[in-house]
Amino acid sequence: MTADSVTTAAPTPARHRPSVMDVARLARVSVGTVSNVLNRPERVSPRTRSRVESAIAELEFVPSESARQLRAGRARSVGAIVLDVGNPFFTALTRGVEDRIGADGLALLVSSSDDDPERENRALQLYEQHGVRGVLVTPASAERADLHALRARGTTVVLMDVDGEDELPSVSVDDVLGASLPVAHLLELGHRRIALFNGPLTIHQCADRLAGARLAVVNAGLDPDEVLVEMPLPSLNAEHGTLAAERLLALPESTRPTAIFCVNDLVALGALSTLVRAGVPVPDGVAVVGYDDVPWAAMLVVPLTTVRQPTHEIGWTAADLLLRLDGEDAVGPTRVRFAPELVVRRSSDPGA
Amino acid sequence: MTADSVTTAAPTPARHRPSVMDVARLARVSVGTVSNVLNRPERVSPRTRSRVESAIAELEFVPSESARQLRAGRARSVGAIVLDVGNPFFTALTRGVEDRIGADGLALLVSSSDDDPERENRALQLYEQHGVRGVLVTPASAERADLHALRARGTTVVLMDVDGEDELPSVSVDDVLGASLPVAHLLELGHRRIALFNGPLTIHQCADRLAGARLAVVNAGLDPDEVLVEMPLPSLNAEHGTLAAERLLALPESTRPTAIFCVNDLVALGALSTLVRAGVPVPDGVAVVGYDDVPWAAMLVVPLTTVRQPTHEIGWTAADLLLRLDGEDAVGPTRVRFAPELVVRRSSDPGA
DNA sequence: TAGGCTGCGTGAAACGATTCATTGAGTGTG
DNA sequence: CACACTCAATGAATCGTTTCACGCAGCCTA
C-alpha cells in the first residue's frame, strides 16, 4: 500500500453531517416529527415513524448533543473530580460512579486534581461550561468556597470520601470506626503496645483514623498514650512502610510494639516484607494490619488483615445522590456515611 | 439547623443564567465584542475590554460550551473507552490520556467496555453524539466495523494497546519483545525448562507473549517445545496463579520447570506466595518473572522481576496522536509501537 | 348535522455563542 | 482639505435541536 492510497482512503471529504432537516426532507415530514420520533416515538403513527426511521438509517443521522443541550438547557453528562484516577481507591470510586451514571445513558467527565486546588478549580470551571448535570468531587482544598459558589450558580455538587461538614451533600466512610475496628481486634488478641504507621494529620483520613484508634483503646478501658505508639510517615507508600518497620525493629525488645496498624495496605506491605525478611514471624512476633483491602492483600505470603471500604458503592451512591438531587424530587438523605469492615487474615490472627 | 433552614439555604430560585447578551448590555457593548473579549482579547481596546471583563465578573457569567460548540462545529472534549478503568494498566493509560488532553484545556469522557462490544458501541454512539474531537479506544471486539464506520462519518479514532492491523492509527506495546526479554534473561541464567503461566490465546496479548517466549528460545538455539511448558490459565488473577503453581509443584522433580514466566504480576504474586509458603526457595528453587511492574512488585518479600510497560506514555502518546490527526496538519507517524523494558529483581536473580 | 374529541403532524420561535461584512471614528499624507 | 487607511466595534445571520400553539381529519355523540 503506497502513501497515495492511504491518502485516498481518507474519510469522505467534508460531507455535511446530516441534520434533522435533512431527515425530515427525505422522509417527507416536518422537523418536529423527526424530533418526536427521536424523543417521544409513541406520539407518532407507526407508518410515519418507520418512514422517518429508515431515513435516519439511510443518512446515518446522528443527533447533535450540543444542539439538544442548548435547547434543553441541561447536558447529559456528569463530572467527577478525584485526587488521582491512578490511585486504586479512586479508581474503584470512579468505576462506581460510571456504573450509576451509565445506567441513565449519561456521559462521565473525569479528571484528577492531584490534590491541587488550582487544578480542581480549572476542572470545575470546565465542567460548569459544559453544563454538566452535577459534579462529584473529592475536594482538594479544605476551604470549599469554589464549590459553594458553583452550587449557588445552580450546579449540583456532591462530595465524595469526605463528610460534608458544611451543608453540601456528601457520601463518605466512617474513618473513625474504620480505625477502631482493627485496633479493637488487636487489643482483643492481647496486644498492649500497638504502633501506628500513620500519615500527616493534615490529611483528614489520617486524623480520623488516629482518633478511631484512640477511641478503641479507651473503649477497652486502657490508656491510649500507653498503648499506642505513633510513628508518623511523611508519605504513604511502601518505602516509608519499610523505613518505619526498620525503626520499629531497632527499638529495645521491652518497649517494642507487638502489632502495627498501618494507614493503608501499601505501607503495610512495606512493613510486612521488612519483618519477614528480618526473620520476625508474622503475626506471632509482630502482627500487621493494613487498610483498604487492595486486590492483592489476600495473596501475600502472609495474607494481610485489613479494613475494607465499600469504594465502588461510595461512587455509585454519590452518583445516585447527585441524580436524585438533580431530579427535583429531592427526597432521601443527602449525607450518606458508610461503615467499613474488618477483614481478618493471617497477618494478625495465626488461626485465620 | 432545622429542615426548614436547609430548604431556605437552597440556591437562588431559578435565576436566569446570564448570557453574552446580558454581559453586553451591562458593559454597553455589542455581543460581538463580548465574544471577542472571550476569544481574541487582543482585538479589543484595553478600555472596552476591562469594562467587559468587569461585567463578566459582576454577573458571574459562564459561557455555554454547548452554544459555542453548536456554532463552532467541534467540541472541546475527547472520549476514551478502555476495557476497565478499574484495572491498573488502563488506569495508568487513562491518566496519560488525561495529562495530554488537559494540557489543551479539553475535557475527557471516559467509560469502560468490560470487553463487551455492545457496551463499547453504546459508548461510541454517545461520544459521537457529543461531537467529541476524537475517540481513543482499547477495542473489545476483534472486528472493527463500528470503529471504521465512525471514522468514515468523520470522527478521529485512535486505537490503544493494540496494533492497528487495519489502517486505523494506533499506539501499542511490542508484546512479542516484552515476552522474549524475560525468557532470554531466564535462559541466560541457565534455566532450560520454563513454565508459561499464560492466558487464553484469544487474548492477543497472550498470543503475542507466547510467540515472544518461543522466539527467545529459538534465538538461543534451543527447541521451544522442549524448553517451554505451557500452563494455560482460564483467568488472569492471583488465585489461578496459585493453582497453577500447585500443579507445577506436583510435577516430578526431573521434569519440573525451574522458572515461571507469568503473563502478569497478579498471577506472579499468586505463584510466588505459593512457592514461598511451600518452602521452595525463590529464585534458587524456582525463579519467577511477572509482567506489568505494578507499584508493589518491588516491595514483595521476594522482589519481583517483571516487564515494565510505558503505560502512562502510551495514553499520552495516543492522545497526542489524536490531537495531531485532528489538527489537519497531520504529520508524523500514525502507528506508534513502544518497547517494554525488563526490570530484574531478586525473584529471578539472586544477586539483584 | 353540528359540536366536541382525539390523534397526528406542522412549522416557527427559541436556546446562546461565533462569525463576518460593514460602519464609524481617528490618523497621516499629498 | 480631501483621501486613503487603520483600528474598534457593531449586529444580523447561523449552527441543529426541542417545544408548543395550531391546523386538520376522522369519529363519536346528541
From TrEMBL, chains A, B:
* HTH lacI-type domain span: 18-72
Any single GO molecular-function term of the entry would be:
DNA-binding transcription factor activity
Transmembrane region(s): none
Highest taxon of the lineage: Bacteria
The record's section on Gene3D superfamilies has: 3.40.50.2300, lambda repressor-like DNA-binding domains
Q: Name one Pfam family in it.
A: Peripla_BP_3
Q: Which UniProt keywords apply?
A: DNA-binding, Transcription, Transcription regulation
Matching entries from PANTHER family are given as:
HTH-TYPE TRANSCRIPTIONAL REGULATOR GALS, LACI-RELATED TRANSCRIPTIONAL REPRESSOR
Please identify the protein, giving its name as recorded. Answer: LacI family transcriptional regulator
Native species of this protein?
Miniimonas arenae
